[in-house]
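Q: Is it fine to ask for two folds in a single conversation?
A: Yes, each is treated on its own. Send the first.
Q: Here.
A: Result:
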Amino acid sequence: MTIAVSVRGLAMQYGRRLVFRELSFDLAAGQAAGVVGPNGSGKTTLLRALAGCLTPQAGEIRINGLTPRDAISNDPRSLASTTPTYCPVGPTTSNSKRDE
């Protein structure tokens, strides 16, 4: 089994608000996963981190052994390579007072 995506000890936060911590999982090549949870639980934050749009506060993400940004730029055949270099981040990613 070849591991395509590996996440170890991932933590994300906005301001003082911890979104999640100690998130770890592996996905094998060809394997799919669903991300479910209530509003505000970190689903979009996780996907943005996997796409290289957000930098985790702790832990690491590897896609075929590379960081997300390196993986996307390294494989022009990848579907992810069509991701724009600009990562839109809305008000939910700000460090505003409401997030504290």
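Q: Second one now.
A: Result:
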Amino acid sequence: MDINRIIIENGVMLDPKIMNDDGVIDLFEHYENLPQDVLDILDETTGDEDYDELYAILDRLKPLGYTFEIGMCGSAYNLRELREDEK
């Protein structure tokens, strides 16, 4: 991948330098690319959620087209848009 190239996805310019090895941007680290309805849900969080609370947040984000992963330590990471095959 040419790291000087800018990718345009859904009208948003994405710098390849902020993508992980799979070409995915963790939107937890780039809030500026999130729609307001997703931001509203995330703004209600404290960062101290347990597994059940994280899954409840995930259930609210999926209908909006977003998902994230939950680590073994109980932390959320890799917030991203759902792929077509996940919808």
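Q: Anything structural to flag on that second result?
A: Two points. The chain has a mean pLDDT of 79. The chain has one domain: 16-86.
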